[in-house]
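hi support,

uploading two proteins for the ticket. first:
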Amino acid sequence: MNDLKFSELKNLFPGLNLSQPNFILLVIDVLLIYTQIFFGIYLCFKFSGFILLIGVLLIGSGQHGLALLAHEGVHSLLSVNRRINDFFARWFFASPILLPYDLYRSRHFQHHRFVSTDLDTKELYRENIEGKEVFYSIIRSLFFCDYIKQVLTVINRNALAKTQKSSYFYDYFSIFIVQVLIASIFSLLFGFQYYFLFWVMPLLTVCFMIGKFRSIAEHRPFNSEINYSSDGKYYMNTKSPIIRSIKPNFFEKLLVSKINFCYHKEHHLYPNVSYQYLPHIYNISINKAGELETYFSTLKKLWRN
């Protein structure tokens, strides 16, 4: 399967547009993600202590789900109509989580093109989580360090990219409008301070932490994959880019890997395929690398590296 071109892959699924998701299933997935966020907010206001922390976790996880939906939009996989695709991806998925949509699209395409090389725009998977380092990594996430690092990385890369011509004004305009709307809703219903407590803080901590550890599980090499004897072009001198698919358990599907993002290798092979059909791509693969592991078991192996 790995040698099939996208045009050849489509012939294996006659009558099915692999780039066009089923609209009803897409709407259900979107509603489920927003319902999780609203339920998390409800828990935060109705309960305290441990239940409140669960609410914050559900909010941050749901916000990460919005990032995954924005990712589908970046690949124009929400609608065959580009304007409709970008409108919903920008205003309903990216802007609510402070994600500059056009800038994200540019950086994400570079990630696909240069994955696991020095030019890869995704860097969080390079964070070491061996031994006690995993606890430091969690602390960095919870104290906004990951978010600050990401912002500084983007600023630095844009400063170095002399070919960068777009100002991305529309990105920041849409973020401003949506954030004002969200803050206004919080102010009217609960109080302005809760916009920061139960929207911004989960976004800049829990959401980023989930994204980081998911990325580490999908891209960071195991010790057995590292080549210590020579210098290669890929991260940690691996023979090829590390791109893993994962088999999440129920809780990982709820918190980490919504909309089939666990089929990460299949997505990198065929980025024009909607998330709804990635399991089909995996099922016809002739190069399956044994039984897929969960995110937890994968991270556990990397922790013990």
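and the second one:
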Amino acid sequence: MQVFIFPLLKCYYLDMANYFYKRVIEEVELINQLRQVFAVAFDEDSVWNSNTPSEEYLKRVLSDNNYIALVAIGEQGQVVGGLVAYVLQKIDQERSEIYLYDLAVASEHRRRGIATKLITELKDLAKTYGTYTIFVQADNEDFEAMALYSKLSSSIETKITHFDIAVP
């Protein structure tokens, strides 16, 4: 496996079985392709396409050092999967944790190790943030996600209840 690091561009590529993994910083086209992968994978077209963020907004989000987006690029140069995560600074100690918020791989590209490779790459990035853990939530009914995260996890917490608090 060959790794090319471009610190000025804040991105890098890993070659693995005809896929390229790239940290997205100012790549609006790639993030928009990833948004479409999410829309299809999560069956949430209205969520992802009803109020598309502007290019300026996406550039601002992508330039935030506490925002991580990784994409898997297929042989034709298209985004076939990716993840979005957030670095959360802690105040209990000088450390941080990463919240893996969204991860999806296009259905025709699943079962090829792409999701595992994306999480492995996120784990490598986590070290540079002084992160002690990566956490992720999954719906109990999402058997593929549950299997993936169970395989990669050091612990499973089942006592969590998620609440959304509306902001008027």
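thanks. also noticed: Residues 3-152 form a domain with the Aminopeptidase fold (CATH 3.40.630.30).
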